[in-house]
Structure formats: structure tokens, C-alpha cells
Specification:
Layout: H1 2-11, H2 23-43, H3 51-59, E1 69-73, H4 77-89, E2 94-98, H5 105-111, E3 117-122, H6 144-162, E4 169-171, H7 179-188, E5 192-193
Parallel strand pairs: 1-2, 2-3, 3-4, 4-5
Helix pairs in contact: 6-7
Length: 202
């Protein structure tokens, strides 16, 4: 029996595992980003930042349709699940833009329990690759091959974590990307690119 198993293993072909060997670099960038985000959140006054929205809603002559999208899922898990509890209690749908490289298996498993939440892809690692100018993960400084590799790797990770229920939507970090990104998204099978309404159409 042992000999049979050995022969079977000798004849089998093992597919090469694709490993990200930049773990230390990526971890450092993600930790720095989280610390900056925490610092920003502490500086925002929770009493006043929604005042303009409240005034606009109070003065509206008719109902205003809108949707909730929560970006940067994979960071600030405690705040995320407090938000999801609130939406779940009121049976209100919310769309979650998940950073594939930042999301943990534990967080993903917990997210699957919220029926009001849908999942889609938010970039790959939420890293800025532009040496100058505005921040962008999928900008002019990256080749088509680099962009497509990150997009497809991110898509596969979300499919592995959330299954086929992952929405075919892509939100680029900072709502910025290029026409090359749009072409890569089409090749990767995405059907929706979600950006700010002021973004230049492709």
C-alpha cells in the first residue's frame, strides 16, 4: 500500500504555488495606511461632518434615492461589524468594497453571515504606485500586465473567500484608474466600474 502511494505521488504533477514574496513590504504599507486612517478618524468631529447632508435632506422637496457603499473593508474590523449590525437590525442593504489583500479569512467568514451585505472588489492592496501627483493604485505608472495581474489575483482571492456570490463590480482605490484599467477589467470579466460621478468617462 505504501509503495502504491509512492508510485502515485511520483507520477502526479504538482502545480506551482504562486506566493507573494513581498509580504514584509506590503505589511509595512498596510500598517502605515491603517495608522493614518485611525489618525484621520480621530480628527473628524462626529457632531458636525453630516450637517450639510442633514440640511440637504431636510430641505429636499421629494425623496432622494441613494445607496450605501462602505470602502476599505479589511481594515478597522471592529468599526465595520458595528456598522453591519446597525444595517442588519434595520434590514438595510449595504455594499462592501473589499480590499482583497487586506481581508482576513476570519473577517470574510463573519461577513458571510450578514444577509444585507454584498461584496465587491476594491483594488488589490490599496497601495499608491504613483511617484508624483494624486494617489492611485491603477495609474499611469503601471503597465497593463501589472494591472491585469493585480485585478485577476484580487478577483480570485474574493472568489476563494466568498464564492460566486461576489459581485462583478470593481471600485478602484481613491476612485481613480485609467482606460487601461477598464480594458483589463473587461478582460477579467467585470461588468461594472464604480467610481465618483465626477470621474472622466472612458
Amino acid at each position: 500500500r505504501l509503495a502504491t502511494e509512492i508510485r502515485h505521488l511520483i507520477d502526479s504533477k504538482v502545480s506551482a504555488t504562486q506566493l507573494d514574496l513581498r509580504g514584509a513590504e506590503t505589511s509595512a504599507v498596510l500598517i502605515t495606511s491603517m495608522l493614518r486612517r485611525k489618525s484621520f478618524l480621530k480628527s473628524v468631529s462626529s457632531a458636525s461632518w453630516l450637517d450639510a447632508l442633514r440640511r440637504a435632506l431636510d430641505n429636499a422637496s421629494r425623496s432622494i434615492p441613494f445607496f450605501f457603499r462602505n470602502d476599505d473593508v479589511g481594515w478597522e474590523d471592529a468599526r465595520l461589524f458595528a456598522l453591519l449590525d446597525l444595517f442588519n437590525n434595520h434590514d438595510i442593504p449595504i455594499d462592501l468594497a473589499v480590499i482583497p489583500k487586506a481581508i482576513s479569512q476570519i473577517t470574510a467568514k463573519r461577513l458571510c453571515k450578514f444577509g444585507t451585505a454584498s461584496i465587491h472588489q476594491h483594488g488589490y492592496a490599496h497601495l499608491n504606485h504613483e511617484p508624483v501627483g494624486r494617489k492611485c493604485e491603477f495609474g499611469e505608472s503601471r503597465s497593463r500586465e501589472q494591472q491585469l495581474a493585480d485585478i485577476t489575483a484580487g478577483k480570485q482571492r474574493l472568489l476563494d473567500l466568498f464564492g460566486p456570490n461576489t459581485e462583478s463590480i470593481f471600485t478602484p482605490p481613491w476612485n481613480r484608474c485609467t482606460a487601461v484599467t477598464a480594458d483589463c477589467l473587461r478582460e477579467a470579466g467585470f461588468t461594472i466600474l464604480s467610481r465618483d460621478v465626477t470621474a472622466t468617462p472612458f
